[in-house]
Amino acid sequence: MAAPYEHFANRLRKALDRTDFVPGRGRTSALAARYAVSRETARKWLTGLALPELPRIIELAKDFDVNLEWLATGRGPIAPGVGEASALYRRLSDNENHLLDAFRKLPESKRQLLVKFLS
């Protein structure tokens, strides 16, 4: 008997493969650590025994640069095409996150000065 969410699991594995996300035996642990879930939960996602909740599927789609509709349902292309919102799905690097956090901590007046200076 097939796993109830086998098709989702296949798409998730394909999305992970596209980005060379920890192949092989360490994949389950790496996925669990990245999304702060148990290894058992990550294993169930990867084997089709469980389906992540919608907010988590959205996060997975963004992190692995795949279309949300494709990941959730299998419909549509695997990734955004040229001219689509592919930049919205790209995960920020650690440096970009650090810069954005620092920017958000600035008072509004200093933010405006910095934007003006960079423009």
TrEMBL record:
Any GO MF annotation of the entry: DNA binding
One BP term from GO: negative regulation of DNA-templated transcription
InterPro entries tied to this protein: Lambda_DNA-bd_dom_sf, Phage_CI_N
Transmembrane segments: none
Residues covered by the Bacteriophage CI repressor N-terminal domain: 28-77
Gene3D superfamilies referenced in this protein's UniProt entry, alphabetically: lambda repressor-like DNA-binding domains
Pfam families: Phage_CI_repr (PF07022)
UniProt-recorded name of the protein: Transcriptional regulator
Taxonomic source organism: Rhodanobacter denitrificans
